Amino acid sequence: MINKKRLAKLIQKLISIDSQNPPGNESNICRFVAEYLKNFGIRSRVVEFRKGRPNLIAEIKGRDSSRNILITPHLDTVPAGRGWKFGAFSGTIHNGKIYGLGATDCKGNLASAIEALCSMAEDKLVPEYNVIFAATADEETGSHFGLIPLIEKGVLKPDEAVVLDAEDFAIVVAQKGLVHLKVKIRGRRAHGAYPWLGENAIDIAVQVLKEIKSLKLKNIRNQYLRPATVNVGTIRGGDKVNIVADWCEFELDFRFLPGMRAEDFIQKLRSIIAGFTKTYSIQTQSIQKPYEISKKHRLVSDLSEAMKKNKIKPKPQGSEGATVITFFQDKKIPAIATGFGQRGCFHVVDEYAKLSSLYKGAAVLVEFLK
To answer: Are residues 37 and 121 in the same domain?
Structure first.
């Protein structure tokens, strides 16, 4: 049975352990989780792809030992920033809410998962399949030392996966893909009093961006997601006010739907820039594929039933942002995401989660895994 008092103390302790990323060091929180699980007879191991960036993996044997289901939250948080009313690492409980960095993203989910596993071990409950629990590093800066190599190197080979990195009991069945690009444009330097003698890279960038913002993207409808978007995230250029800028660079964030391809957008971008200049380069910083799974898949229906039994209305929906569920598709592993934190509290000052939601989240996981 879920122990509410124990869960509250656990989430407070997890929040108190600094695992901000950047700079990125999950050693202390990983060590704590390993010791905590050990007290309930749950052994774990650490897999590290860079020093100080550990991933913790534990397993509970199920009735059908030929199949594995993965439950995976992450250990790191974004940087705390400033302006907290309640301390970022305080774990203050006020009016049924727990405040602190990671309360919703993702230490609340981490605590609910740990409590679910410990409760099952305590009550000697045997899940249907083997349960693989992976608390991963580096989610907040791309999972390059966490889930990606764990999957690609075959450390994790689940038949199905549930990512704990959503809010308000959402069941994420679709999400947009993303492309992050840096565009560099070169001009020709000249004195600012004689601009006709030079070629202003900033002027070229402005024309390019105007074309990009008016670009008609392929219209693919998705019942869970808004249309594709392009955001200009940064722009820099020039050296001094009285010099014709001979360089300018900007970064683009392109979010696209299942059925669309990143390559098509990049090709259109090249065509637009080439209409204004030949001296440019495009650097692809990151690409994640879009993802979609049928709402009739058993992962969705079983989790929905577990929520209903705990008097929670299931909410299959899409994610405009990128969760790690996308990384499973190349290995043909069905995956969904869910989570129990507070809507709108990802990456904010005075982040919080409702303790009642974390309790229910742990109960839902136990019912689902049984």
So the answer is: yes
What are the tokens at 224? 């869970």
> Which of the listed residues 288, 316, 331 is the one where a domain comes to its end?
288
End position of a domain, from candidates 231, 254, 288? 288
Transcribe 79-91 into DSSP letters.
---S--SS-TTT-
The CATH number that applies at residue 328 is 3.40.630.10
Between CA 176 and CA 261 the distance in angstroms is: 11
Per-residue pLDDT of the chain (370 residues; tens, 9 = 90+): 999 999 999 999 999 999 999 999 999 999 999 999 999 999 999 999 999 999 999 999 999 999 999 999 999 999 999 999 999 999 999 999 999 999 999 999 999 999 999 999 999 999 989 999 999 999 999 899 999 999 999 999 999 999 999 999 999 999 999 999 999 999 999 999 999 999 999 999 999 999 999 988 877 899 999 999 999 999 999 999 999 999 999 999 999 999 999 999 999 999 999 999 999 999 999 899 999 999 999 999 999 999 999 999 999 999 998 889 999 999 999 999 999 999 999 999 999 999 999 999 999 999 999 9
Q: What is the CATH number of the domain that holds 265?
A: 3.30.70.360
N-to-C CA span, the chain = 13
Residue pair 137/55 in contact by the 8 Å Cβ criterion: yes
